[in-house]
Fold these 2 entries.
Entry 1:
Amino acid sequence: MTSHRPPLTVAQYGIGPIGAEIARLLLTKSWVKVVAAVDIDPSKIGKDLGEVIGLGRNVGVTVTSELESKPDVVCHSTGSRLRDVADQLKQLMNRGCHVVSTCEELSFPLDAEIREELMQVARAANVTLLGTGVNPGFVMDKLPLTITSVCQDVKSLEIIRIQNASTRREPLQRKVGAGMTADEFRAAVDAGKIKHMGLRESLMMVGNGLGVEFDHVTDEAIEPILADREVVTQFLKVAPGQVAGVHQTIEGMGRINVSLELRMYVGAEAVAADRVIVHGVPDVEMEIKGGVHGDRATAAMVVNAIPRVVQARPGVLTMDDISISFR
Amino acid sequence: MTSHRPPLTVAQYGIGPIGAEIARLLLTKSWVKVVAAVDIDPSKIGKDLGEVIGLGRNVGVTVTSELESKPDVVCHSTGSRLRDVADQLKQLMNRGCHVVSTCEELSFPLDAEIREELMQVARAANVTLLGTGVNPGFVMDKLPLTITSVCQDVKSLEIIRIQNASTRREPLQRKVGAGMTADEFRAAVDAGKIKHMGLRESLMMVGNGLGVEFDHVTDEAIEPILADREVVTQFLKVAPGQVAGVHQTIEGMGRINVSLELRMYVGAEAVAADRVIVHGVPDVEMEIKGGVHGDRATAAMVVNAIPRVVQARPGVLTMDDISISFR
């Protein structure tokens, strides 16, 4: 029982919107002692963490530009691309810290070279590195994999996430293209500005968990979802015919076909859901009504992973390597 | 990727209805080589496993009364009570075999003394012992725990399984009391003849996974569900007012309240489902339509656990200690 042990010492590394959400959650946990907070933003450095994350009270932890102590665990949230954050992850592990990161590309590292480097550092330092979040990290990979365990056979697997962007923060509403014309949307896709990160990682984690090597994996298709009515959110207005959001898909074909479909758009309140459809023996159809809210759940996944990570074997793990629950 | 490794050698220990279902499934897996089959029934000993499990073909494995080889893994399915099977489990582990068992009381061993004995044997033999199945083992413990991982806070958890007994085998329909009068049902409950095994184990696994020590755990309530119309199955007929099945509940109260409700009765086709309702931040409501079929899924859980168990740490593990998916 975690409650009888001394609290785990934890640092928050990166205090953007997600990092701040993680820090707020860490501060509510009796089994966590937040001992450090790190960010590169000069406007945050030197301030109390409580002030930076809008708590309305000081928590006695001053934001620094580098990690100066050696906490048990670091919650890392600075970027989506593994290449950009690999050096940070190595530094943190070399200090002797376990690391739980929201880096989407870390959820199932596809770059074999970086993965191997991280694995060597983790093993040498005897620590565990895990990439997690709600997506990638749970609703389109870990949860579907877990559901398939009741099956004697699986022919194909459909994983569908319809997320209502209306209840998400403004940057996300902008990022899915809400309010753009279809042409603006396509230009933004071509410029790499509209893309949910991690869909390929989720697909490959699912394939790996099922023991399937796909014969063929499609390119990710990124299409606009056009509003069929006016949609008004707290932050913006979408006219009929304008873009409401993004429809992104990927599929792996092989002994088992696995398709992932992500629809993230404003005005989706009536149809929002997370769904897993297994065609197999038996067929299984699972639904989470309304779907799991992105930002809050990502912070939850990171924090809930901590007690599992400190007990896991050293190395670079994925969510398919650990058991998880609320803590 | 399991497909490139030599197959795991596996023995089936116990060839009753569930053991036969497991054996049939094992024989379909390319990554498994079934090398032995054990049963105490003189009518099965000496026969080919394929004949005993009704395959209509021989598989080259003769049923014996004792395990004579040392397979990598033994699938054990001989009884529900830990006290009755503990010696078998120790023998199998002392041979150096990992063991995956359907023993319901093994899913979360509540008898501390037996658990400690098994733990010592497992560690000394450097093998892993796991109790699993669909219930206990998945739909009312492992799956709800996994679902809660998206939550920042959990106030209470409702776990509801409504299983349509009409599609289950005859012994199960009889075991839930279908066709009895209410008086006969209560007498059968008092005699210990009507009881789903493992509900308390599921509750305690959930509490443990959530890091909660319950202040109070209710006794298990076992009540009849009376038919409000005539129900006819392949095996029996239930008149209106007669017992259609069983309604069994248990609840743990503490920092988080957890309630488990199992309804297993004939004629439940319209309402059958597995459901998890989390009251927390956020609320989460998950449903598997129609519910997961018991016997088939139990065999699936056992076989799908094998690749995870051979990679797990030694000891007595529960489903909350391992990750799982179809293989």
Entry 2:
Amino acid sequence: MTQLSSEQDFLTLIDKYFPSENGHITLGRGDDCSILRTDKELCISKDLFLEDIHFRRSYFSAADIGYKSLAVNISDIAAMGGRPKGFELGLIIPPSLGIDFWEPFFQAMSDLAKTNNIILAGGDLSKGQYLGISITVWGEPAENGIFLSRGNAKIGDILFLHGQAGMARTGLLALEELGPQAAKLYPESVKAHLRPTMRVKEGLKLAASSHVRGLMDLSDGLARDLPRFLNCCTGSLGAEISLPESSLHPEIIHYAKSKSASACDHAYLGGEDYALFGAVSAKGFKELTSSIPDLKAIGKITAGSKIYLNGAIYAADGFDHFSK
Amino acid sequence: MTQLSSEQDFLTLIDKYFPSENGHITLGRGDDCSILRTDKELCISKDLFLEDIHFRRSYFSAADIGYKSLAVNISDIAAMGGRPKGFELGLIIPPSLGIDFWEPFFQAMSDLAKTNNIILAGGDLSKGQYLGISITVWGEPAENGIFLSRGNAKIGDILFLHGQAGMARTGLLALEELGPQAAKLYPESVKAHLRPTMRVKEGLKLAASSHVRGLMDLSDGLARDLPRFLNCCTGSLGAEISLPESSLHPEIIHYAKSKSASACDHAYLGGEDYALFGAVSAKGFKELTSSIPDLKAIGKITAGSKIYLNGAIYAADGFDHFSK
């Protein structure tokens, strides 16, 4: 029996059987969202959030699970520069969980939905042995009608980041090692893992700028997501990334030191940061920082297909939910 | 710890936290689909399809699972009189399944998608201990722009059925008892359970008629779905249902006899038939049968809230995926 051992094997197999675009879908598989043609376009995305795969109940509270399961979906809409509008909720429900779990779960999810003005449109419930949340979310474009996909970056473009690379990975590893106690040593990293910040407003501002050439959210870390971003662009593009230790959060540096690891590599590997990452013309970047002050330049697009991290050539893997 | 012991408990809890309609959703939770407002409306629905909850691998082939997981979703679009357009696919993938499983799985799903001219727009993959399929599907209305929800039936309306009530239940129970051998004794019932027929064309024809007052698909059986249908209508409505043994498939009668049970009760309990069930004005029914010859009248809407089956008052439960 031949095994399908990676996500890519599955995607290749799926591509073999399913066309990815037609007159209805104007942007198909491979980006953060797909775009459905309606007279007013919607973008739509789906993320599974499963016990012992994406979260552990030993250090995620019910409210954390309710929040994050919806948040990671909303982030895909933000990554298109879209405005989230609605979602469908599938719940796989283990018999052991009672109302003391579900009340805070729904409360946190509902609060996040309200903050983002999105409505729960429907869904499905089922018993199961492990808790699982399957959400499909969709959104509308900003006033100019434009969604930001990943492609279109050009040589010389500035690569920018809104959010921190490596914080959530620090939180995850600390939580795996120390359990809930990790919050004492690494409070902000733990928060970044349990309660990632949504960046819908920033996404909408980026989509409103004519200078932004591509956008995505960092769900699997720069090491994995940057090559994906470049692969979506036309031609053979590379990148120079600058993540000096001085730019990193003290918790990242502290954690890496405790493991005798490079803090820069640790941040670059990242994973689950849900920071917004994209490309903008050098001219446009300055303009953007006046409306989004905490937007950081972390590198630029170069000719050729090589990736440099802090001046040295880089080849490594990022975070893979599937093979984790 | 207070347990949530039924689907209704969950729906009540969800209703407590989430509004069900706003300017974006013009038809919210509680029907087969929710309707999103776009300039051209879409209807959208989601169904989980989980190992050992909704199917067993001991008698479902990989192809059966690929087919049925998408089919039960398409049926929700048919139940709105809609035209399915696209879907998102979430897969929970146990490590033991190799390419010899996934090839026929995707082939059958792809064939069904092609037959219905719908496109796989995206989704998510994850490892997991049990196989699970989570699909969100959406569709457009027919040319007149009308979706058929459940409400609006009136006293004197004909209740109609397209498809057989009780076939899939016969297949399920025989398969649970006999395994794949059940197909020898109950070939059509087993097929009805493993490969339910989609009724998209009939749904579109029903939506094109101005006489049809409400439509749904029988996923949980008449005993459970009929009260839901009546509850969606204005006022206190009842129904008289006629399912004489002479109208039932011989396999249903044979199975019920082998258990010394009533074939009529068995058919009425049903479950997973994905037959279309609805209400139409008495005048309109005749007109409909000329365009949909195999549409059957099985009863009528009455005043008061009582339900009669073959002349006797009826109170019982149908099929509940959740508490199964």
